Amino acid sequence: MALHRNSDAETVTMTIELPSLKQREVNVEAHGKHLSLFLDFKHSENHDKGERMVREHSCGKFSRTW
Q1: CA 22, 64, 40, 15: dihedral to nearest 10 degrees?
Q2: Which end of the chain has a smaller Cβ tally under 10 Å, C or N?
Q3: pTM of this structure
Q4: Cα Rg of the chain (Å, integer)
């Protein structure tokens, strides 16, 4: 996460890298002087391992407020 404050323009820019997440899985909200980040993700992968098929599923939720 990188946070840049521009006191002349009274703005703050935050850059966050979220690898493997899609834009629809990320929600950002501003409330007064607080900024909240919410993540809600579900991923499924199928792997063919010769005679076997392996399926992996992961899901989770995360939130943070600054």
Answers
A1: 0
A2: N
A3: 0.58
A4: 18
